[in-house]
Write a structure and sequence with these properties.
Two copies of one chain form a homodimer. Chain A is of the alpha+beta class. Chain A has helices spanning 3-13, 24-31, 67-71, 90-102, 116-119, 128-134, 140-163, 170-185, 245-263, 271-279, and strands at residues 19-21, 49-52, 59-63, 76-80, 106-109, 123-126, 191-198, 218-227, 230-231, 235-239, 289-291, 298-302, 315-318, 321-323, 328-330, 333-337, 342-344. Chains A and B meet through helix 5, helix 8 and strand 7 of A and helix 5, helix 8 and strand 7 of B.
Amino acid sequence: MTRRDRALAVARDFGADAVLAAHVGTVAWLTGYAASIGTGPSPWALMPFAMLTPDGPPVLVVTEDEAAAAAATDCEVVTYPGYGIGPLDPVGGTIRALSAVVDGRLVATEPASIPAPVAARLELVDASRELGLARAVKDPDEIDKIRASVRVADAGQRAVRERAAAGMTELDAWAYVCGAMHAAAGSPIPSVADLVSGPSSQRWEGPPGRRELEDGDLIITDLSPLLSGYWADSCSTIAIGEPTSAARSAHARIRGRLERAVDAVRPGVIAGDLDALIREGLAYPHHSGHGIGTTYHEEPRIVPGWPTVLEPGMVLALEPGHYTEDLGVRLEWVVLVTDDGYEVLSRHLVDL
Amino acid sequence: MTRRDRALAVARDFGADAVLAAHVGTVAWLTGYAASIGTGPSPWALMPFAMLTPDGPPVLVVTEDEAAAAAATDCEVVTYPGYGIGPLDPVGGTIRALSAVVDGRLVATEPASIPAPVAARLELVDASRELGLARAVKDPDEIDKIRASVRVADAGQRAVRERAAAGMTELDAWAYVCGAMHAAAGSPIPSVADLVSGPSSQRWEGPPGRRELEDGDLIITDLSPLLSGYWADSCSTIAIGEPTSAARSAHARIRGRLERAVDAVRPGVIAGDLDALIREGLAYPHHSGHGIGTTYHEEPRIVPGWPTVLEPGMVLALEPGHYTEDLGVRLEWVVLVTDDGYEVLSRHLVDL
């Protein structure tokens, strides 16, 4: 079953014969069309929609500005006017384009991603949760895209390891990381990123700031770049100068825990059990991991008691951490669930 | 009249006694709370809402993760659970928090920015257009924020002028620009940006790519960073090595046009007339300018026939351009409409 088959099966379960993808990640998943998300709402465009029926490729609803990029997928493309020097009406344009595409059908969709005036014109059922679950198992072409995105994260991790040095600020280090990721991607790309430093890294997350790096600092660098609609993830903890013995010991413990976590990945494992294995004896305030794909945190969630069962084709980011008054360590790799075990997709170093 | 007074006047015109700000820019405008927009939809949060009534400061509805930042405004803050290791339900959380805040009142709001399941619980009237117009005139504290954001754009413009050189790629130049803007901002920030190069810059927009800069190239760098909820804007065109005489001539013409445009800014001028003055004899495919504030393109739009009349406190970005088979030039400054004329807020150079 391809992902389009799985999506249509979700629709049938709801008594609908069409899926209307509304979340930007679900649109990317069903169509390969990666809308721009890095600058908030546009004055002349809504986010794209994609309509999937059993009768052919999906139909993408986008602005005329996006038509060429949308046509590079295998989808049909229906447009409405986008940027221009006349009046702007993205809501009206979307409603008119979508009405023709949906044509009165009952659609299984994601209401939380639909602006109210657009939803008012649709007959819909809420299949958000089920579509989210259907996204968890990746098709081979999706895994290729995640591999490419992980290469971008690798490049960012290499940059912080090679460039971070005492006397520069967190933002100086970030400039190298950001430049390396954009160069690897071939374009500026969005990323979810933490870069926090200090001898006492009680902060386990946060953006880089003006703090100057000092000898003895640990730097937690967590990089999730978005490339061609697919997110990667990664985390390293490196030391500036000589780490303390406490830092060495904590790092070795978390590295061992990451390796134990990865080794436990195989089909049939329950997400909550994997969480327990990773979390045992540690007290980090976050998940032990999560699926990645066209959203940066998705199924399977690796959190206490979570019932999702691992299947081949799922892609997990696993990230044990340890944070005390004195230091913070987190390490993260991306892992593919294979037919009989796992493959680590990340190539960045997790040395201290 | 402060902006909160103007917003409440909009509500009264619709027979409502409250404004529910739903667009992230309107929330920033009424509250000073700048939500994160750079990474698309969050799995654990909806965008913030802000409820304004005549009886006190606005009430912000945000996740618990955002509570500290929201509390730094003068607003009341109502939260719902955000990131966590249990079940995530941002829609349910928003509905519960918002129901208590709205308390059955009729609200003047922006339906296109409200997810369908949230809107279904509200009594609302669509005041999107009127709130957009009310945002056009800035209060003094907003102008201070725009000045600060323009300083970030200035830093990015300085970086491309100082660093761009033959042999580096557009992305190499962008890494300096991006690093300079983040350093000036004190944090990574989103930006809407073009960086296009070539002897024949027929492309008037687009992201930086892997093209190598060569002697004789023109580079169009258009930078709109977002700082503390307020966008700036800016554009320069610089030459790598010796520009051709055609490039010098086109640049001089556009520079003269920018200066003529700025000199024409004063209260009472009709936006469409300003467009005609800037556009005369040129054939660029875009607006002549636009308002900026908590959105990157807003009222007054400087486009043909646009009826908005300039008022003191409006902030315009003016950007004449000239694009042929052989070359492309665009220059842009941000200008404040004052009581009797204008003040140029931009400080970046617009030399070739």
